[in-house]
Amino acid sequence: MGYNFGRKSLERARGVDKELLLTAVVALSFSEVDMSIPWRGGLRTPEQQKELFDAGNSRCDGFIKKSFHQSGNALDVVPYINGKLDYEDSERFQKFARIMLAAFTFLQSIGKVDKDKYLHWGGFWSARDDNNDGYLHHTDDRFGWDQPHWEIRLAPQRNVLKFLD
């Protein structure tokens, strides 16, 4: 199967780290889930970040605590179902996360992504293996608080849980 980002999504991704965007484009081309980059899902100014913070949609205020979106090192990607963004579908987020993580590893292996960079997923932030089976699964466990969010960092992500196959 596979999908491509639409014109609006690509416009919203302007200024995002090229390796992060490439990873998302490659992942989407192998995905069985259509995804979109939402409004303010790419590069943000401090003022735009503050608006999201004031609305309760971010933990970063844009000035004291900056978001990775402000440096272009973050991208939000959301399932696009029947013409609408779906922020609640953990199963679809999880399916895309598997592909995104695999695409990043593959792109590193062929030299398209710097080997000193690490991909972080907001779905792992504060995630819990509620049934204590050693895996993260959309029906039994709690995902992290920011499933749309992906970012590039220079250190590995902590508290990464395995996905249930």
Tell me the fraction of residues in β-strands, as a range: 5-15%
Radius of gyration: 15 Å
CATH architecture label name: 2-Layer Sandwich
Point out poorly predicted stretches: none
Within the largest sheet, what's the order of strands?
1-3-4
Order of helices and strands: HHEHEEEHEEEE
Q: Globular, elongated, flat, extended or rod-shaped: what is the shape?
A: globular
In total, how many beta strands? 8
How would a crystallographer describe the biggest sheet?
3 strands, antiparallel
Proportion of helical residues: 25-40%
Q: N- to C-terminal separation?
A: 19 Å
Count of individual helical segments: 4
In the CATH hierarchy, what is the class? Alpha Beta
Name the average pLDDT. Answer: 93
Structural class by secondary-structure content: alpha+beta
At the fold tier of CATH, the topology name is: Muramoyl-pentapeptide Carboxypeptidase, domain 2
Mind explaining what this structure looks like?
With 165 residues, the protein is α+β, with helices and mostly antiparallel strands. The protein has one domain (7-163): Muramoyl-pentapeptide Carboxypeptidase, domain 2. It contains four helices and eight strands. Strands 1-3-4 form a three-stranded antiparallel beta sheet, covered by helices on one side. Strands 2-7-5 form a three-stranded antiparallel beta sheet, covered by helices on one side. The protein has a two-stranded parallel ribbon with strand order 6-8. Helix 2 packs across helix 4. The chain is globular and about 40 Å long. The two termini are 19 Å apart. The mean pLDDT is 93.
